[in-house]
Structure formats: structure tokens, C-alpha cells
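Design request, C-alpha cells follow.
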């Protein structure tokens, strides 16, 4: 493996420090500036999205997840990348925002769900790796990501204001203002955020078409008539625009509006411990064109305006079957309607109001699930779950989907999908450690983007559901001066849905294995060494070739130093060569472009926390201005005034400063 450059960077890092614990007497290994998140529970990583992080604090959900071992991001520009977990992307990774599951509108994946997330407006982010839960909907072949607000914090009597400002190179500016007030039986919370940046420059000094701007406003109102009851209404609205370096069009409109209603009742009886109900509505309105955010070339004017309406509902109950046994059961429903209007080959910019929307696809899914946790003894437990989903889809013929350009017009599909898992956990006697092993199975249907490809068949129903059977095992160590974990997986996927760059899709069989490891070691007072490692090996068994879009081996090594209110630090990220490729094949997000060389980057940071209200953090990413691109990346597009590269290059040297303030 080639990690270039190597030794010189590591020697420089040895003289650098990074935040580990803000005070000398601290008994934890938490980070002030997060560079290497750790696994907290078996297959679970919990993160604080309000804490500054490095690389640069994220402006969207995918950028935030990039720090978690096992995650990669497919870059398209300055924002709205697609998150990839263990080489799996798209609808193989469930993304929920306060319990609501929704999908983007763009038929070319300009807007994955994480594009509508400003991480800092949430209280907690949880990553569950692998098919090791059934509570959060269908299709978690790779895992589940939960962006959540904490209702207990919102309901604490009194008021609180949180604010943050961040500034960085290339016009980067983020601002967040959040406030909440709670009385004896009610609470209210509101958040406003703004994020913008101009075009960044890569390590070679070339400007990348990547400017963006986004605003989000959300509010939550809750009523707690007694200590066991909560009724909560939420609303969110956002708007954005973003330039894309990987295609011939930009996103000139990303509008979202969403509404949710939750009900929770606890302690109904000795058996029925909690009852929860939730309904959500999300509407995405998206416009992309080839003239508003870039220099117009000789090409004709093109504009496309897809939208998506998602409605969902969930009812669940926690049942205490015995002192050591808790069963969570429930039912959930989701319906999606996608429509489209567009115009092309126009001599002048078209007016979308002159065009009618046409419904192109509808989906409906109802699921039943149950998840059991049984304490076998004080030091061991078993967790298991089952779910069944009934999924149906209809693709409609219209002006944009005809037999001439889409042989799947008027095709329907109906599938019964089964998922489940069982996991055994054991706390090791006399050791601050937990070992676990689990077997999971998940099935998911083709999604909107896969169904929109031409598979050479007469019916979309003939593209079979994807079935992943996966073994997960690992060990977590939580000591006073050492926290560490290792997780391994082996996966067999039948009917993996593989796409090709000529807009075709087919089922193949695949085998995957790999894992992640993390370490935080306080080897001396004030000093902490941190590291992570992630690796995936994947094969397309049907064609006897590597499975496309598999990330290379990656490692991170950091060193932290803390003295009083000050912390200093740095992290080296090392990515190996990737020669196991299948050019032209991949998934709905992107296809392999060829082999890549390894690279190494260095990032430095510092933080100052003079009291509980204020925190100032700063950093420099890509200190040596390395000119590089990730292996999993979109193809660079020919855009007037910009240098064209095979891949979309990552940003060059980037300096940033962030200020956080909290008033109670």
C-alpha cells in the first residue's frame, strides 16, 4: 500500500497537539475538537453535532459523517455529497431526521437526505452499523443514521440560547442561532441557520465550481400535561442553491417544508411501559438548470423541476415482558409521490410555469416489526428483531417517460420484504470490555433511481429485491486511560443492484468483508493519542471482478494536548492506493473511474474554553496543500472558466475559525 507522503508528515505531527480533555483532572477521553469518533456501544457510534470537528466543521449531514470510521463522501461540489458506509450508499443507508424518513427529489442525486441537514441544529447523531436493528424502517443494508433532538433537554424548565459563528477560506460563513424556553407544562424551541461559501480551490490552485448557500428555519412546540405524557408539533423550512462540478447542471432551488406530530405516553401499566405515535409530512421542490449559476455556453437552455411528497406514520409500544425482557413492537407506513416537469433544447431560458407536472412514480410501504432485548445475566444479553414490509410501486407513462426513452413506463412492482437480526453481547469478567457477535439479514426493493434505469426487461418488477446477510463481531474496551474498539463484518448480498454508466441496472451476487478500529489512549497527563482504521474488500461474484465503488484502506492518527482551558492538536489522514476497480460500474450515486493513488493530509486545530459559556476553536485543513481526489468521487465536468479533472478534487489548504456561545 502507498501512503504518500509518509515519514515527514508523521514527524511533524509528533510535535503537534490536539484537544483531548479540557481540564487536567478530567476522567474521560472526550474530544473538544472531534477528529476520531469512537464506538460507544456494539455497532453504535454517538456524536455531538454541536462540537467543532476537523476536517472543517460540516455544512451538511454527509460532511459531518465523514469523520466516522467506515464513512466516505462522494464529492459533487462544495456541499450535498452522498454518504457511503462500508462501500454502500443511497437507499442502502437509512437517514432519519427526528424520526422522519424521506428522500430527495433530484433524479440525478443532487439532494440526498443529508443535503437538508445542518448538523449543529440537532442534539445528537447516532450511527448504527449493519443490519442490526429493525426499528427504523426498511433497507438498512449498510446501517442507520439518526439526527435527533433531545426532548428532555427541551422540556427542562427555564430558557437557553445557543449561538455560533464560523468563518473560513473561500468565503465560507456559517451562523446558527437557537433558543428554547420551557415552563411547567410546555416548551418551545426554534433554530435558524445560514451557510454559504464561494468556489474553493484545490491543492493545485485550480478553482472548483462549488459555491452554495443554504438557510434553514425550524421550530418545535411541546405540551407535557404530566410527567408521563408528551405531545409535540414540529415544522421546518429550508431553501438552498448549489453549484456542481460533476455535471452540466446546477441546483438553483432546494426547497423543503416538513411537519411532524409526536405523541408519547409512559407508564401506562406494569407491562405497557411506553406508547409512541408519530406522523410526518415532507415536500421537496427542486430545480436544476445549466445557465443560472454558470457561464452559458453554446448549448441549449435546459431546466428540470422534480418534486417529491413523502407522508409517513409510525406507532410503537415498549412492553416489559419480565424484569429482564423488553419487547418493542410497532407498525410504520410511508408513501412517496414523485413528479417532474422539464424543458430542453431551448434558445431562451424557459418559464417552468408554462409546463405541467407529470407524476412518474409512486411507492407505498407498510411494515410490522418487533425488537427484543433480554438480559441473560448481569454481564450478558441478547438483542433480536424481525420485521416484514409490504412494498408496492407504480411507474407512470407521461411526456417524460415513454416507451421510446423508458421501457419501464407503466410498470408496477409488489414485494414482501423480510428482515431480522440476532446479537449476543458479553461483558468480560474483570475487564472494562464488551464482546459481541451478531447475524443480520435485510431486504430492500429497487429505489426510485434504480427503477429509473433501463434494465433491458419489460417490467421493473423483474429487478429483484436486494438481500444482504451479514455477520458482525467485535470488541469494545472502555478504560480510564484507554478507549478502543474493533468491529469486523462478513456480508453476502444476493441480487445486489449494480448500475452502469450507460443507464442500465442488473442484479448480481456480491461478497464483502472488512471492519473498523478506533483508539484513544491517554499515555501521559495532558496527552492523548488517537487513531482509526477502516477497510472494505468487496467482490462481484457474478462477473468475478471487484465490486465497484469500494473505498480504499484508510487510517487516521492524531495527537492531543490539553492545558487548562487550552487544547491543541492535529490529525494525519492516510489513504491507500485502490486498484480493485470495475470502471463504468457502480451504484445510483456514481461509477468507478479507474484506479487511484494513495495520499496523506495533515490538519491542525486548537480550542480555548475560558468558561462554560464560550468556546473558540480554529484549524487548518490540508496543511501542505495536497492536490488530491477521493477514490469514490464523481467525474469532473467541462465547465467554462474551470479546469476539468477526471475526478472532483478535494479542497486545498483551508483555514477556519469558529465561536460558540451558550447562555442559560
Amino acid at each position: 500500500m502507498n501512503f504518500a507522503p509518509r515519514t515527514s508528515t508523521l514527524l511533524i505531527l509528533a510535535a503537534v497537539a490536539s484537544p483531548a480533555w479540557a481540564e487536567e483532572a478530567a476522567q474521560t477521553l472526550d474530544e473538544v475538537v472531534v477528529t476520531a469518533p469512537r464506538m460507544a456501544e456494539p455497532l453504535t457510534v454517538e456524536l455531538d453535532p454541536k462540537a467543532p470537528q476537523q476536517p472543517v466543521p460540516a455544512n451538511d449531514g454527509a460532511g459531518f459523517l465523514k469523520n466516522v470510521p467506515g464513512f466516505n463522501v462522494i464529492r459533487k461540489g462544495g456541499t450535498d455529497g452522498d454518504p457511503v458506509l462500508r462501500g454502500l450508499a443511497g437507499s442502502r443507508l437509512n437517514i432519519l431526521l427526528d424520526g422522519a424518513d424521506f428522500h430527495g427529489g433530484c433524479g440525478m442525486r443532487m439532494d440526498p437526505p443529508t443535503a437538508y441537514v445542518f448538523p449543529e441544529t440537532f442534539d445528537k447523531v447516532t450511527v448504527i452499523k449493519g443490519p442490526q436493528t429493525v426499528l427504523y424502517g426498511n433497507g438498512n443494508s449498510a446501517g442507520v443514521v439518526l439526527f435527533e433532538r433531545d426532548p428532555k433537554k427541551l422540556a427542562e424548565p427555564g430558557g437557553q440560547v445557543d449561538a455560533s459563528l464560523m468563518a473560513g477560506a473561500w468565503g465560507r460563513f456559517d451562523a446558527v442561532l437557537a433558543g428554547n424556553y420551557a415552563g411547567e407544562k410546555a416548551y418551545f424551541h426554534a433554530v435558524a441557520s445560514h451557510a454559504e461559501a464561494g468556489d474553493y480551490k484545490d491543492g493545485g490552485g485550480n478553482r472548483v465550481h462549488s459555491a452554495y448557500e443554504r438557510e434553514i428555519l425550524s421550530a418545535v412546540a411541546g405540551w407535557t400535561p404530566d410527567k408521563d405524557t408528551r405531545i409535540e408539533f414540529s415544522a421546518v423550512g429550508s431553501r438552498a442553491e448549489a453549484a456542481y462540478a460533476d455535471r452540466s447542471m446546477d441546483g438553483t432551488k432546494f426547497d423543503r417544508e416538513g411537519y411532524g406530530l409526536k405523541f408519547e405516553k409512559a407508564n401506562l401499566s406494569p407491562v405497557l411501559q411506553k406508547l409512541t405515535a408519530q406522523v410526518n409530512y415532507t415536500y421537496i421542490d427542486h430545480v436544476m438548470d445549466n445557465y443560472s449559476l454558470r457561464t452559458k455556453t453554446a448549448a441549449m437552455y435546459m431546466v428540470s423541476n422534480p418534486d417529491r411528497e413523502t407522508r409517513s406514520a409510525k406507532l410503537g409500544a415498549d412492553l416489559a415482558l419480565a424484569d429482564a425482557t423488553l419487547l418493542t413492537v410497532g407498525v410504520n407506513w410511508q408513501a412517496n409521490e414523485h413528479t417532474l416537469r422539464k424543458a430542453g433544447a431551448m434558445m431562451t431560458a424557459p418559464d417552468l410555469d408554462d409546463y405541467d407536472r407529470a407524476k412518474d412514480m409512486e411507492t407505498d410501504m407498510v411494515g410490522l416489526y418487533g425488537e427484543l432485548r433480554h438480559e441473560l445475566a448481569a454481564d450478558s444479553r441478547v438483542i433480536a428483531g424481525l420485521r416484514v414490509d409490504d412494498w408496492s410501486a407504480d411507474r407512470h407513462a407521461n411526456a417524460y417517460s415513454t416507451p421510446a426513452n423508458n421501457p419501464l413506463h407503466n410498470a408496477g412492482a409488489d414485494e414482501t420484504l423480510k428482515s431480522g437480526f440476532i446479537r449476543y453481547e458479553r461483558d468480560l469478567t474483570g475487564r472494562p470490555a464488551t464482546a459481541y457477535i451478531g447475524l443480520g439479514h435485510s431486504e430492500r426493493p429497487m429505489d426510485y433511481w434504480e427503477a429509473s434505469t433501463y434494465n433491458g426487461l419489460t417490467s421493473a418488477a423483474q429487478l429483484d429485491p436486494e438481500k444482504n446477510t451479514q455477520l458482525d463481531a467485535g470488541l469494545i474496551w472502555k478504560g480510564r486511560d484507554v478507549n478502543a474498539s474493533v468491529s469486523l463484518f462478513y456480508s453476502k448480498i444476493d441480487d445486489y443492484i449494480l448500475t452502469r454508466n450507460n443507464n442500465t441496472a442488473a442484479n448480481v451476487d456480491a461478497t464483502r468483508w472488512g471492519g473498523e478500529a478506533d483508539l484513544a489512549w491517554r499515555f501521559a497527563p495532558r496527552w492523548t493519542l488517537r487513531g482509526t482504521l477502516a477497510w472494505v474488500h468487496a467482490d462481484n461474484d457474478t462477473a468475478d471482478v471487484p465490486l465497484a465503488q469500494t473505498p480504499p484502506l484508510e487510517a487516521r492518527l492524531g495527537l492531543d494536548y490539553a492545558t487548562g482551558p487550552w487544547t491543541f492538536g492535529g490529525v494525519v489522514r492516510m489513504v491507500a492506493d485502490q486498484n480493485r476497480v470495475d470502471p463504468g460500474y457502480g451504484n445510483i450515486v456514481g461509477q468507478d473511474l479507474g484506479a487511484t493513488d494513495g495520499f496523506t493530509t495533515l490538519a491542525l486545530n486548537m480550542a480555548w474554553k475560558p468558561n462554560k459559556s464560550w468556546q473558540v476553536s480554529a484549524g487548518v485543513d490540508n496543511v501542505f496543500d495536497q492536490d488530491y481526489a477521493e477514490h469514490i468521487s464523481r467525474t469532473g465536468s467541462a465547465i467554462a472558466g474551470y479546469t476539468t479533472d477526471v475526478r472532483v478534487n478535494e479542497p486545498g489548504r483551508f483555514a477556519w475559525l469558529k465561536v460558540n456561545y451558550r447562555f442559560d
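Comment from the thread starter after seeing the answer: thanks! The CA atoms of residues 33 and 504 lie 43 Å apart.
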